Amino acid sequence: MTINSRIGEITQRIVERSKATRSPYLERMQNLIQKGPARKRLGCANLAHGFAGCGTTDKERLATGDVPNIGIVTAYNDMLSAHKPYEHYPELIREEARRLGAVAEVAGGVPAMCDGVTQGEAGMELSLFSRDVIAMGTGIALSHQMFDAAVALGICDKIVPGLVIGAVTFSHLPTIFIPSGPMPTGISNGEKNKVREEFAQGKVGRDEMLAAEGKAYHSPGTCTFYGTANTNQMLMEFMGLHLPGASFVSPDSLLREALTRAAIQRALQITGKSETFTPIGEVLDERAFVNGIVGLNATGGSTNLTIHLIAMARAAGIILNWDDFEDIADITPLLARAYPNGIADVNQFHAAGGVPYIIKQLLDEKLLHADVKTVWGQGMAGQAQMPKLNETGELYFEPVSDTSNDETVVRPSANPFQPTGGLKVLAGNLGRSVIKTSAISEDKHIIEAPARVFNSQEEVQQAFKAGELKDDFIAVVRFQGPKANGMPELHKLIPPLSVLQNLGQKVALVTDGRMSGASGKVPAAIHVTPEAVDGGAIAKIKDGDIIRVDAVSGKLECHVDATEWAKRQPATRDLSAYHSGIGRELFSTFRHVVGSAEDGACALGI
C-alpha cells in the first residue's frame, strides 16, 4: 500500500535524523535476541530465587525452562480510578497463563500519581518526573531476566509514557499494553465546567462544587474526558501495542475480561519460541511513531504528548521534534470531537466508532503506514476492528464500516471537522512553543494584547479574585518549566481565564509550563522553550509589553523595540521554596539534568 507522499517524506527525514542512535539500538536488540531467553542462562541459585514464591506447578514449569514466562509490570493503586480495576488483573493473568501451559509473575510495580488529585498542589511538581521514575521502575522489574514476554498495566498521564520508555529499553521482549477502560458517563463535562466557572466567580460554594466533581468522577475507570490518559490509550492502538479496539471497553465487563485473556494468549503467541515473534523494538519503529502523531492530530489529543512521544521515541533511538508534529498536523484532518474539543466523552466516542473507525478512515486516505508490526499481527488494517462477544461469549473482532455511528462525534475523512489536526508550533523572539487550536474557535487563533506577568498560577488566581484582570491581556506565567519546578500542569488557570473570555475580554496564556490534556477554550502558547530559569526570553517580558500569539502564521512575539529587547536582562526568581516539601527535595538531581520540553523533558540521559 502506498503512503501519502508528505507522510513518506516526514518519515524518511526522521529515519535519516535518527540513524546515529537507532542503528546501535537495533544492534543491541539483535544481540539480545540471538542470545535467547536469559532465564536458561541464570545460575541455579538465581533461578531458584526467581520462582521461590511460585506454586508447585509454576515452579516445575520454570525449572525446566521450556515454557514461556510473562512478566507483569503493574501500575495498580487505589489513587487512580483508572487503575483501580487492575487490582485483580495479576491473578486473572496468572490463571490464563496457567491454562495455556505457561507462567506469569508480577515482575514489579511502578508508582502512578493522579494528576487530578495533585492539580494546583505541590505534588503536581513531581508529576512529570514521575514518568522517568516509572521508566526506571519498569527497567528494574524486567531486569530479573526471567521473562519471555511482558504485559504492562497502565493508563494515565505519565504512566503509559513511562512504561513505554522502560519497556522499549528491553527491545527484545514482546510487550503488550492492557487497558482497563473508562468509567461510566457521569454528569457532562460541560455541566462540570459550568460549576467550576461559577465556583471561580464565587457564585456557588464548596459543597456544590464537590458534589458536581463527585458526579463527574464517580467510579473505577478512566476519567471520561479526552485528556492525556485517554490520548495515551488511543496511541497504544495506533502504535500497535493494544489489541484492536481495546482502549474504551468498560471495566469489569465480560468483554473487558475476554480482551485481557486474549492479550495473554497473544503475548504467548509472539514470544521468541514462535514464528510470530514480535519484540517491542520492532513494533516501535519510526513508522509507528509517525502513525501515533497522525492519531494525535486526527483525534485532537493532549498536548502533553508533544513531550512524551519525543521521550518515548528517544528510548528507541528515534529523534522526533515539534516540526514533525506540526507538519503532520498540516495534512491530517480532524476526525473526532471529544471533550475538550467537543461535548462528547470517550464512551460516546467509542460508541460512535472510536479509534478503529478513525484508523480505517486514515488508512483509506493513505495517511498511516499500513505495513507496520503490531502485537496483534495484522498491520494497521488489523487495528481497524471492534472487539465483540458472540452468543456463546467468545471474543471476535469485526471490521468497522465506512459509516460513522454519530457524525457529531466522529466523521469520515471526506467530511472532517477541520482540514488540519490543530497542533501548531509558534516561534519568534520569545522562543518556541506549541498551541492546540482544535479546541478554540477560529476568532481566537490570533490574540494580541498587553502582557500581565506572573510567576505562578496562584498569582493569577489572586489577581482574578481581586478584580485586577480587566480589559484585554495575555497572562504570562513563567518559571514553570522542567528545571524550575518540574513543569507542573497549570490546569487551574482555565476557569478564571474562561470567565474573563466569556465576559468578552481577549485573553490568552503564554507559559513555559504545561496545560492539562483536558484544557481547551482559552488560547495557550505552552511549553515555551528556552524556559525562564534558563534565561529564556519569556523571562524578559514586562507588564504592558504587547504580545502576539498568532496560531495562523505560527508567531510568538513580544513587540518591543529590538534595541531595548537586546539590552533587557532576563528576570530571575528564588525558587527554593518550590524545591522542598511533599517529596520535592528528592528530585533535585532531576531538576538539574532535565532537558527542554522539545527534547522530551527527560532526566534519564536518553
Automatic annotation (TrEMBL):
Cofactor detail note: Binds 1 [4Fe-4S] cluster.
Record field: catalytic activity: 6-phospho-D-gluconate = 2-dehydro-3-deoxy-6-phospho-D-gluconate + H2O
Cofactor(s) listed: [4Fe-4S] cluster
GO molecular function: phosphogluconate dehydratase activity
The keyword 4Fe-4S belongs to this UniProt entry's keyword annotation: yes
InterPro entries, per database record: 6-phosphgluc_deHydtase, Dihydro-acid_dehy_C, DiOHA_6PGluconate_deHydtase_CS, ILV_EDD_C, ILV_EDD_N, IlvD/EDD_N
Residue intervals of the Dihydroxy-acid/6-phosphogluconate dehydratase C-terminal domain: 409-601
Listed Pfam families: ILV_EDD_C (PF24877), ILVD_EDD_N (PF00920)
Top EC class, one word: lyase
Keywords (A to Z) from UniProt: 4Fe-4S, Carbohydrate metabolism, Gluconate utilization, Iron, Iron-sulfur, Lyase, Metal-binding
Dihydroxy-acid/6-phosphogluconate dehydratase N-terminal domain boundaries: 68-381
Pathway, per record: Carbohydrate metabolism; Entner-Doudoroff pathway
EC number(s) recorded for this UniProt protein: 4.2.1.12
Residues where [4Fe-4S] cluster binds: 156, 223
Function as written in the Swiss-Prot or TrEMBL entry: Catalyzes the dehydration of 6-phospho-D-gluconate to 2-dehydro-3-deoxy-6-phospho-D-gluconate.
Family annotation (HAMAP family): Edd
NCBIfam families documented for this protein: edd
Family: Belongs to the IlvD/Edd family.
Protein name: Phosphogluconate dehydratase
Gene: edd
